[in-house]
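S1.2 Input.
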Amino acid sequence: MSDNQRVAVVTGGSRGIGRAVAERLGADGQAVVVGYAGNQAEAEAAVAVIEKESGRAVAVRADIAEPADVETLFDIAEQRYGGVDVVVNAAGIMILSPLAELDLDDLDRMHRTNIRGAFVVSREAARRVRAGGAIINFSTSVTRLHLPAYAAYAASKGAVEAISPILAKELRGRDITVNAVAPGPTATALFLDGKSDELIQQIAGQNPMQRLGRPEDIAEVVSSLAGPARWINGQTIFVNGGAA
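S1.3 Output.
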């Protein structure tokens, strides 16, 4: 492998969009540290896919809300591959409830992962990403769609949209871009679980493209932000097929 190979840290890399992102960046030629919270088997499967295509990858367990765990992700990237160029923070949880019925423990759980985790990962990325690198956080199109039962989740992701452009300005002069990606309804377990087939079809039909997003659709945009798209900075990119 070239000494110039880019190195990516992907949190939430064992399933769904994070998994698709990890595999796409591996296919793009980046060495990938696949961060996962608990599903080691799926994380190792992602590593196997990347290695099958002659890429380099390693799975590392990490709670993104714990600074020591996140430091370990970056330490391993630096020790194995020489540094960190790209950080994709795809880890997140979603618990749905009408606001009047919201369990505050659920709110705190989402806050811990989606907000605190975004700060912890972004802070470490700001300290360690090399010049020419990219930091990519994940929001959601629900911040604009205003769907019932999504208030707490959308609020937690609204914080991500606030963090990213401010960090972009704080990294002035270091040639590091910071953006947020905001997927619309995407065919992952996170979205599909608990929904009837009828509801899923209804949501898919509301999109101008007449389908749900695929994880690969989102990974394609992340791939660009993680590589050639150097003039996109401090933005939230809505990747949703035209959902209002």
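S1.4 Remarks. The chain has one domain: 7-184+215-238.
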